[in-house]
Specification:
about 475 residues; about 0% strand
Length: about 475
């Protein structure tokens, strides 16, 4: 274990805890803990939302895809930028005002109130689906952190994950939504600086700059063209790359809940442009890591996901390298803390309160929220210890599941009046199930490898529309009876 690597990590953990203590506000209700009583300004909303989006995937999985397959993988970034812009444009402001109108602090509660579901089925299914896929997402982040600990800090995988989980637990329990927003702000600035700085330094170490990248790419058979050729297969692959990531934004609870916390919905445009600028810079820099890595590591890497980590180890003194690699941990932590909080809020608001204690006091729900944080963190840690997948695969599975389960319903809930609770229930079920099993059935349906996001999103949207139309009269009659009674 290299002490010079560990010192920066210890300092980083201390900074997070200090931010948690400084930003702490006394919480008396679960609303304070879950959405910070809707008190965030526009710049904290913007950067915390985007920091919650860009997990360790930004430093490890995305650069690895560019490192292996070249410039065509930039279509992933294009899809993400377009998807996030449309989410700001179509969802952010409407969701903020709608959740306040329906007095909702979680997505399951909002969907239930919006569609007047008296059966509790919609809330229950939505909460369970979100809990499953978000826990998978948190586990993917923990796996990434564990690999950094092993490679850089030479800390045992299990020990490293346990320590990181405890740090996240401490500052999340201290302050909830407000603390997470402030720590995410710090981490967004920190990781952006590092993901720009490292490939820039590496680039100036190349003998011929871009010429070295071109030569190395040609030798390895890696394409540097955004569109390798205009064949049908290439065009379809580009469309799939863009859609499998871009469509997912509409349904990511850990991102869209940040919109619910802004103090003034009219400031959402400011948040949008600030956040999109941050995302463009971060994705561009991450892609540059992969491109520079093609020439920087002429012999390739046994573990391509370590391209950023290995680059840092080669370029910098251990003390500086440990500090820089805390940015990878920052990317993981800034996503996981929000995901853990969202899961905990659904446990308290959507399961405990609705299913077991309808008249639970605000303080009681606050305690349950905090216990939920502990439960979700430990469950995710347990799953992460079974590291049998790549970070890219784990993140994409969770991303697709959340996007297909909630994305179509989110759009329908905000933009249509002809959607009812039956359609909403069918959409969540169809989207989540298709995304979850598509990888196993794809080969039986077509010879093309189709990302689960595409059939899952489309079938969920279709089922919401069809089932709502088929049951509309039934819903209208039930609603009229409830008004009479």
């Amino acid at each position: 274990m290299h002490t010079q690597y560990l010192i920066p990590f210890a300092v980083y953990c201390l900074i997070l805890i200090i931010i948690g203590i400084v930003s702490h506000r006394k919480q008396t209700t679960s609303a304070d803990f879950i959405v910070g009583n809707r008190s965030l300004n526009f710049w904290i909303t913007a950067l915390s939302a985007h920091a919650s989006d860009m997990s360790s995937w930004l430093f490890m999985a995305f650069p690895a895809t560019v490192f292996i397959a070249g410039v065509p993988q930039l279509w992933i970034a294009f899809g993400l930028l377009l998807g996030m812009f449309l989410t700001w444009q179509l969802v952010a402001k409407k969701l903020r005002t709608s959740t306040e109108k329906y007095d909702s602090y979680t997505l399951p509660t909002f969907f239930e109130n919006r569609f007047k579901d008296k059966t509790n089925i919609l809330r229950l299914i939505t909460a369970i689906m979100a809990l499953f896929f978000l826990t998978c997402y948190v586990s993917a982040g923990l796996i990434a952190m564990g690999r950094v600990f092993e490679s850089m800090f030479q800390i045992d995988f299990t020990v490293g994950l346990t320590v990181s989980t405890l740090v996240i637990l401490v500052y999340t329990l201290i302050g909830g939504f407000i603390t997470i927003a402030w720590t995410d702000l710090f981490q967004a600035i920190f990781l952006l600086c590092m993901v720009i700085f490292v490939p820039t330094v590496a680039f100036f170490h190349l003998e011929n700059g871009f010429g070295s990248i071109v030569t190395a790419a040609e030798a390895k058979g890696i394409s540097l063209s955004l569109i390798p050729d205009f064949s049908f297969a290439s065009i379809v692959a580009i469309i799939f790359l863009s859609l499998e990531w871009g469509l997912g934004y509409f349904g990511q609870p850990h991102i869209v809940t940040k919109f619910m916390g802004i103090n003034n919905a009219e400031n959402m445009n400011k948040s949008k442009y600030l956040g999109m600028t941050w995302q463009f810079l971060a994705l561009t820099a991450a892609a540059f890591v992969g491109l520079v890595g093609i020439a920087f590591f002429e012999e390739g890497l046994h573990k391509p996901e370590q391209v950023f980590v290995e680059m840092v180890k080669v370029l910098f003194h251990p003390l500086a390298a440990g500090f820089i690699l805390c940015s990878v941990i920052a990317a993981s932590v800034s996503t996981m803390d929000t995901q853990i909080l969202v899961n905990a809020s659904m446990i308290s608001e959507d399961l405990y309160k609705k299913m077991f204690r309808r008249h639970a006091s605000p303080k009681e729900l606050l305690v349950i929220s905090r216990l939920g944080v502990v439960f979700v963190a430990l469950l995710s840690l347990y799953f992460a210890l079974n590291r049998n997948t790549t970070i890219q695969e784990a993140v994409l599975y969770a991303w697709s599941g959340l996007g297909c389960s909630f994305g179509p319903l989110m759009l329908m809930s905000l933009y249509t009046k002809k959607t009812n609770n039956y359609g909403a229930i069918s959409g969540v079920l169809v989207g989540g199930i298709v995304a979850g099993v598509w990888g196993s059935v794809n080969s039986y349906v077509t010879s093309f490898v189709i990302p689960p996001m595409i059939p899952g999103f489309a079938l969920s949207l279709l089922s919401i529309y069809v089932v709502s139309r088929l049951t509309w009269s039934k819903t209208s009659n039930l609603y009229r009876r409830s008004l009479i009674l």
